[in-house]
Amino acid sequence: MQRLTWPFRFITFIAVLQLCACATSPTGRSQLKLFPENQMAQMGIASYVQMKEQTPLSKDKFTNSYVSCVANAITQETGTSYQWEVNVFNDKAINAFALPGGKIGVYTGILEVASSQDQLAAVIGHEVAHVLASHGNERVSVAFAADSGLKIAQVLAGKPTQQKAQLLGLLGLGAQVGVLLPYGRTQESEADILGLEYMANAGFDPRQSVVLWQNMGKAGGQKPPELLSTHPSNATRINGLNSRMEAAMKLYQQARANNKKPNCR
Fold first, then answer.
1. How are the residues of the chain apportioned to helix, strand and coil, as percentages rounded to the nearest 5?
2. C-alpha span between 119 and 213 (Å, rounded)
3. DSSP assignments along 8-50, one per residue
4. What is the pLDDT of residues 197-211, one digit of tens each?
5. What is the pLDDT of residues 39-54, one digit of tens each?
6. Which residues are catalytic?
């Protein structure tokens, strides 16, 4: 059998990418998604295991119960089959993350800024939205398309390298691994929209999402919180949230009428 020439192989590769790009996000925009969700879940789970090995978990029962209460209320509104796992990391960093495979991490530091259950719900809803909108898959796919020689599984399973840190950053662990790879403005806006819906459907006050990002902007003095390194908070973001607030309030009022009244403490 005649071997394919390089130009033909390249054209074939581009054609495959175009076919894969037919995927759409929950808000209806086109996405490049080259990897099956089960493979993304495996990568997310493996990354989460590493995080638990490298960062101490909080042993405070009240803190764990509080964070789990908020997270569980949010994830129940996502309609996914994930068995969500929630852990609180004993670290002063103002940070949180969610990974493919249904893994959520909240740092104790963010509890000083997200000062109510509603504000924490805004954080967790936003991070969960990144997962459910397949933003990790999208980012890894773009990186893979730019470097078709990238062996995803081998990189993740191997020893710490810059390439491995970059992959973890693409999955959503940017600040945690020291590689700042911010989500794009489109992805951020999408996570804001979906996160607002999740928290409202769970019975959390969506108006507190604006207060949260105002608090985030004030925290840290001259040096912004780590979460803002990958989740920029600005007037555009707050305006975007406010533009969706009327619809979110209707969802919130409906949820409350259906007796969804979280009482996480």
1. 60, 10, 35
2. 9
3. HHHHHHHHHHHHHTBEE-TTS-EE---S-HHHHHHHHHHHHHH
4. 999 999 999 999 999
5. 888 888 888 998 899 8
6. 127
